[in-house]
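Memo to structure team: turn this sequence into structure tokens by end of day. - J.P.
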Amino acid sequence: MFYDLYTQAGKNLSGIPWQNYPRPQMRRNSFFNLNGIWQFTVQPEPELPHLYERTILVPFCPESLLSGVHTCFPQGSFLFYRRTFTLPAGFVQNRVLLHIGAADQFLDCFLNGEQIGSHEGGYEAMTFDLTCALKEQNELVLRVKDDLRSHVQPYGKQVSKRGGMWYTPVSGIWQTVWLESVPEKYIHRLEILADGEQAVIDTKDRTLFGTVTVHTPQGLIKIPLEEGRAVVRPENPRLWSPEDPYLYFFAVKTDEDCVESYFALRFLSIQKINGFTRLCLNGKPFFFHGVLDQGYFSDGLFTPAAPECYEQDIRTMKELGFNTLRKHIKLEPEEFYYQCDRLGMVVFQDMVNNGDYKFMRDTLLPTLGFQSRRDSKMHPDPDTRKAFLRGMEATVTQLKNHPCICLWTIFNEGWGQFDASQVYAHLRSLDASRFIDTASGWFRGGDTDVDSRHIYFGPWRLRAGEKPLLLTEFGGACLGVEGHMFHPEKAYGYSTCKNQKELEQRLLSMYEKYVLPAASKGLCGAIYTQLSDVEDEINGLITWDRQIVKVNAAVLRAIAKELQHAVET
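Reply from structure team:
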């Protein structure tokens, strides 16, 4: 039996969800939210329907409880969303843009019967210019197709038949839908390149001139924007870290447009310290003490009931002593990364995998120790490879301004892996400022910045070599909490505990027996599995519905201090 579980935010949900401004690193004083109740129907053919049989609550996917639909439709179905809108007086400046945070996998946009554009990819934001088709009263129709029978598109941990470590599929719209109006000559984007001394703010438009105003601890400073670019060098720079997540807020103003944003000053490096190769934050060795974060919620699946749920997760993990979240083969709305920036939580960001998965090849044999394999001929389909690279490029473009992200993970446990050294080189050309974990877990051998290991069943071989050593997955100890389990008859994890005390003892044993000694001998970070229970999995530190924290915070906070001390001495 499956149990419908709601987070507290889901229980409290009313009215229009997700009313916060959805683009925190490029705020403009124009925002018309289209979240809420839409007409909805599903059919096997792509022709626009005449009849909409039900409604759905956007931005929640139809498979979720919060959507009001709570149905998994046949793979390859066409999902149709319809609503009307009238813009408020004074809203239109010149052009009107439609933004959709994400929709899985293929979306076509129609306004007043005219097709405006299309988008491919289920995890990144999209924008459509509605200006030419806009009327006083408007009909907006969005057609979305998702098909997991093909593994060409990135899909993460979604499967048609969920179970174990694979989860309920997500289709359709799963992030905020909104409108903004912009002048004819507007700022299309901001690219921020920051280190420990300065930030380069670049609009990528060499015809733009204006002023950048920055809030600093010493007061406001104004810097000219020339040919779309400005360089900010704050006096006595205050460096970002989990202990002091200081953000410099700024505004870019041109003759016609104004956007607000922020940056942080911090720098990453790899240094030889006391005979070991260390990952350093702001010039000092730093132990990345983290948890695996799947980004699933009991009532909204890909989308929490409210943006405040991200803050709750981050604060809970910080209270337990963690400073890092490994966002596991999923992207989030920008609100998540803003909260990590603001609250001081490092993010190891995975790329979203595609390609086929085989249990024997990708999990069983590597777990038994068969972890060497040349990847030049793995996943050879050119369309699949092209789709992965397109998704990787989109991920970096969308997220690279966030200072919380300190490491990119390209491939996880061989899923979709191919030509690791070439893909590493391509990612390095897109972002030269962060660490790159090319092959997390196994099938190592290509170019990478770190030596990345997964250990669930032993043996615990953690010997640091020339590259910084990371334990990017381990643990997975299970504790089911009665009344807070999705599928009690088929719980999944890597070891079982009977009560809270036994779970705490299991955690302490793993850290004290294996992780702490390794940290003093070169280990640079460890990612425990995992932040929360997810469906069958009951190996979270908190329950699937986010209602219960399974461990005493004081127990884990003591470990965190010891780990950081181990890398400093």
